[in-house]
Design brief:
By secondary structure, the protein is an all-alpha fold. Among the domains are: 59 residues, no CATH class; 83 residues, Flagellar motor switch protein FliG, alpha-alpha superhelical domain (Annexin V, domain 1), CATH 1.10.220; 91 residues, Annexin V, domain 1 (Orthogonal Bundle), CATH 1.10.220.30. Helices cover 65% and strands 0% of the residues. It is elongated, with a radius of gyration of 32 Å. The protein starts with 21 loop residues before the first helix and ends in a 13-residue tail after the last helix.
Length: 352
């Protein structure tokens, strides 16, 4: 039997772990918060910081409990020592003061510092007025136009395509067939480039384009006033008159613009009084066809009730009838703004 004493067993000495860098600690904190289900707006960070954070996270493999507790404790201690945090740079300051500065001052500061508006570029573009978006299609290449049309919500894209001249619409639609290989990076750069054009544009007093502003006024004007103004504008500026006719909504247009399924809710919102006035007093063929279209898409009981009310009242004069039709247009415009009522595009050919 071997009686020599056993050799003393010494524990394996692990190599000393180098201290964690701040970016690794940040990666540990982010990983911990994500594992706890926290929503972290990493997209708000500059691109270089997003890249550093991702690379640091990729360099880590395993963190023991003691190290995790130490990093979290250090993070909590730093948070407790913060008395007040200011935004990072001029871009953050402008974001914090959004709505507090005058539009002119904010726009000037952005231009002078080369700071773009924060937020997702494509979300901002999708929220733009269709008239503003049409300007991009007139200025940009077919490839950029195809990407822009692809990134917009389907309903808005369809409306814009319908408003383009036929040849332009066909060329943009065909260009979409060549977008299959477009990379996410290219789409991102296009979005930023288009959004930058909004940021660098000089501030304007009026948000809506001239045709839309005047069109909303003519919507509720008398037919004589509307026709007189349009005739005069056509003599001076045919292009502006054409744009104006494209945005005006008259009672007569409802037979083309209103979806049949929306007619009952529109009539209920308008009310029986104005509808019976229009039925009793409308004489122009287009106006008569409009109220007949609306009634034909309602229940027979309600349409008969409105016809009977119209027969029982004294025939209203032209001013009273036009006032009722103007109120109907106002109601529909309000339903567009508040309830998302969608109108159909103006047809190229009308049965006048």
């Amino acid at each position: 039997m071997n009686t020599q004493p056993l050799a003393r067993i010494t524990p394996v000495q692990r190599p000393a772990t180098p201290p964690l860098q701040r970016r690794h600690k940040a990666a540990i904190i982010v990983r911990f918060l994500l594992s706890e289900g926290a929503e972290i707006p990493l997209t708000d960070l500059p691109e270089d910081l997003q890249q550093d954070l991702t690379q640091a996270m990729g360099q880590l493999r395993y963190i023991d409990r003691d190290t995790l507790a130490e990093v979290l404790g250090e993070f909590a201690e730093e948070l407790e020592q913060i008395g007040l945090a200011f935004p990072d740079g001029l871009a953050g300051a402008l974001e914090t003061l959004d709505g507090k500065l005058s539009p002119e001052t904010a726009a000037r500061l952005r231009r002078e510092a080369g700071v773009r508006q924060k937020g997702d570029a494509w979300a901002r573009l999708a929220a733009l007025d269709p008239d503003v978006l049409l300007g991009f299609f007139e200025r940009e290449s077919l490839e950029v136009s195809a990407v822009l049309l692809s990134k917009l919500p389907t309903d808005k894209a369809a409306g814009l395509l319908a408003r383009m001249p036929g040849e332009q619409a066909r060329r943009v639609a065909f260009a979409m067939s060549r977008t299959e290989q477009v990379t996410p990076e290219a789409v991102y750069r296009i979005g930023v480039s288009l959004a930058t054009q909004i940021d660098t544009a000089p501030p304007r007093e009026f948000e809506k384009p001239p045709a839309k502003r005047l069109g909303e006024i003519l919507d509720v004007s008398t037919a004589n006033t509307r026709d007189s103004v349009l005739t005069g504008i056509e003599e001076d500026d045919a292009d502006f008159a054409r744009a104006l006719r494209g945005v005006i909504l008259t009672f007569s247009d409802l037979r083309y613009r209103l979806k049949p399924l929306d007619a009952p809710s529109v009539v209920r919102t308008i009310g029986e009084e104005d509808m019976s006035i229009i039925i009793a007093g409308a004489t122009a063929e287009g106006d008569v066809k409009a109220w007949e279209f609306m009634l034909s898409n309602m229940s027979k009981r309600l349409s008969d009730q409105l016809r009977n009310q119209a027969r029982e009242r004294t025939t209203p004069d032209g001013e009273t009838t036009e006032g009722a039709m103007a109120r109907v247009v106002k109601v529909i415009r309000r339903m567009q703004a508040d309830e998302g009522l969608e109108l159909l595009p103006i047809p190229d050919v009308r049965d006048e």
